[in-house]
Specification:
With 356 residues, the chain is α+β, with helices and mostly antiparallel strands. The protein has two domains: 155 residues, NADH Oxidase; 132 residues, no CATH class. The protein contains 16 helices and ten strands. A four-stranded antiparallel sheet has the order 1-2-7-4, sandwiched between helices. Strands 3-10 form a two-stranded parallel ribbon. Helix 1 runs antiparallel to helix 6 and helix 14 packs parallel to helix 16. The chain is elongated. The protein starts with 8 loop residues before the first helix and ends with a helix.
């Protein structure tokens, strides 16, 4: 009976990174499971209430910062990133600067990345199994309590910037992250060093001043939280600073000098759908619920729900340049069945009545 050859884990790690690139990932790295400092940072952040209504951030306790508690037996985490900005995009600042248009965060313009990346992670795991046989693993893409940015930093994929977004020295910050938790004792990569220096452009440009200190984000003020995670009324004092940002916000990334190195996406499914890379607010506000559900099928925009979509657009219309078409569109929704939608429409109309 033949004895199985011992696994060369260094060679396997090199193969994993090569397979990852072949599967469409931009980069891959390997991290251990020690996240003690990040656990302390998370606990402090939660204690201050910075997570707002995102109760799931606190619900899972230390499983978020201790991978082996989330997936028993985990020794290493394979962290992977995938660029998401497609080629040929209109200038983001031009869209933000046009008050009649709606700005949708660049990551959300095409297909929702969760299932796509999870399928790629499964294919990567299958390739590993083909090489060494069965092993223990679990794939995650925003689907469980995972400190993905800290893990990616430890895997050498980038550093966490002052805006709390991961930055890669060669590719900026426009990329998604995914993980394979595994019991394989692979060699660990060196963590990435930080290169923000004295720069604070992301802090200064944030429309709602949500970056309350370097590396400290108050989600309750963040436009991404307000337009996606928040299910109720948007605080009145934050509506005007939102401008025309109706799903997410990219300002802190757009201003980051490291994004001059951003790489274009190679995945065609991330291309914009339904001209959402620069649509008119009035046009989106006219969508029926059936149109919303149909046109956002398979997209991250679905997360906000139809009422949240109308709420966000009403704020954008309230901030838009005064015009009869905008007033007419708002009045057409003034009696909407949703109290939340009616309230935001009334706020928007009052702004135009005052102007008019």
């Amino acid at each position: 009976m033949s004895v199985p050859s011992p696994i060369d884990y260094a060679a396997l790690a090199a193969d994993i990174k090569r397979w990852a690139r072949e599967l469409g990932f931009a980069d891959a790295g390997i991290a251990g499971t020690d996240l003690g400092d990040d656990e302390a940072h998370l606990e402090s952040w939660l204690a201050e209430g910075n997570h707002g209504e995102m109760d799931y951030m606190a619900r899972h306790g230390t499983r978020r910062s201790r991978p082996a508690e989330l997936e028993p037996g985990t020794l290493r985490v394979i962290s992977l990133r995938m660029d998401y900005v497609p080629p040929g995009m209109p200038n983001a600042w031009d869209v933000i600067g046009d008050g009649e248009k709606a700005y949708v965060a660049r990551y959300a313009l095409g297909r929702d990345y969760h299932k796509l990346m999870r399928n790629r992670l499964q294919k990567l795991a299958s390739r590993i199994e083909e090489r060494i046989g069965g092993f223990q693993y679990r794939a995650y893409v925003d689907s469980a309590p995972v400190l993905e940015k800290a893990i990616a930093r430890n895997a050498g994929l980038g550093w966490i910037g002052k805006h709390t977004v991961l930055i890669n020295k060669r590719a900026g910050s426009y990329f998604f992250l995914g993980e394979l938790y595994t019991d394989l004792p692979l060699p660990i990569d060196a963590p990435a060093s930080a290169h923000c220096g004295s720069c604070r452009r992301c802090i200064d440009i944030c429309p709602t001043q949500a970056i309350v200190a370097p590396y400290r984000l108050d989600a309750r003020r963040c436009i991404s939280y307000l337009t996606i995670e928040l299910k109720g009324s948007i605080p009145v004092e934050l509506r005007e600073p939102m401008g025309n940002r109706v799903f997410g916000c990219d300002d802190c990334q757009l201003i980051c000098p490291w994004n001059k190195f951003a790489q274009e996406a190679t995945e065609p499914d991330f291309a914009p759908r339904h001209s959402l890379d620069g649509p008119r607010l009035v046009e989106l506000f006219s969508w029926s619920e059936e149109e919303f559900l149909s046109r956002t099928e398979g997209m991250a925009i679905r997360r906000t729900g139809y009422e949240g979509w109308l709420r966000n657009l009403a704020v954008g219309l309230g901030n838009a340049p005064h015009g009869d078409e905008i007033v007419a569109a708002l009045r057409a929704r003034a009696d909407h069945p949703s109290e939340m939608v009616r309230e935001h429409v009334a706020w928007a109309l009052a702004r135009h009545v005052d102007i008019g």
